[in-house]
Amino acid sequence: MMTAKSEFLNSGVGYCYPDNNASCIKIMRSAGVSALLYILSGTLVVVAIFGNLFVIIAVSHFRQLHTPTNFFVLSLAVADFLSGVLIMPVEFAAVIDYCWYLDDAVCPYHIMYGYFLLFVSVLNLIMDRYLAVCDPFFYNRNVTNLRTGMCIAFMWLLASLYTYMFIFKSGGLLVTDMCVGGCFFFHYTNWWIINNLLTYLLPMLVIIFRLFFSISIVSILSVQTVLIFLVAINCCIDPIIYGLFYPWFRKSLKMMVTLKIFKSSSSMTNLFSV
């Protein structure tokens, strides 16, 4: 006769720490599905780290790439690189099993840096595309490297202040003692709506409205696992796009791989010549 615990485990749900009665609940997946998810997540992490690292080195090293647009690309690559190093490995492990395996003291920093880096990425995309697409003449005449650097510094500062206020000063609640193996962040519904409007919906509406003058929202994905993988793919997609469509990135990447980048005159290389 099956015990209540064995029936519970056979139902597709188990415990993060089976030997602990206070353990959080986890999703039980087949070995094949778990292996596939971990392989996929590991691939995304590697692409996010090394792809964005190549972009950072290319834009930083080659003087021909020191333009306002590329500085926004550099800022975005730094944010995505840090996400790949600090956030994605932990988040994937947590979302695949729905368990938190790190120390409870790490939980607040993980949540704070996750929101912070995601907001930085959004701000970089919005600012660069708004100026370049919506006000191209102003962009070409008035956006200098110095002003771009000041704008990027302001965006990182704004993202850090907003993230800190949203998580710690507006009624948010970080919970790690609800059960063993849990890292949860709760907030008032009104604040979730405001946060999503400010950080995601409104910025996108600005760009889409200025480009198309109308918008139609078809559906919103609410499944946490799918959402996490979509965010991770977003961190990986830029280096792939650069590699497919930008010859200067392929040329700079070839110089890195062949170690020609270490030559004293490599920073003056003409990346746009055939």
Automatic annotation (TrEMBL):
Cellular component terms per the entry's GO annotation: plasma membrane
Question: Quick check: keyword Lipid metabolism in the entry?
Answer: no
Q: Which keywords label this protein?
A: Cell membrane, G-protein coupled receptor, Membrane, Receptor, Transducer, Transmembrane, Transmembrane helix
Q: Where in the cell is it found?
A: Cell membrane
Q: Which SUPFAM superfamilies match?
A: Family A G protein-coupled receptor-like
Q: Which membrane topology describes this protein?
A: Multi-pass membrane protein
Q: Which residues cross the membrane?
A: 35-59, 71-90, 110-127, 148-167, 200-221, 227-249
Q: Which InterPro entries match?
A: GPCR_Rhodpsn, GPCR_Rhodpsn_7TM, TAAR
Determine the domain of life of the protein's source: Eukaryota
Report if keyword Transmembrane helix is assigned.
yes
Q: Which residues form the G-protein coupled receptors family 1 profile domain?
A: 51-274
In terms of Pfam families, this protein maps to:
7tm_1
What GO MF terms are annotated? trace-amine receptor activity
This protein is called: G-protein coupled receptors family 1 profile domain-containing protein
Organism per entry: Erpetoichthys calabaricus
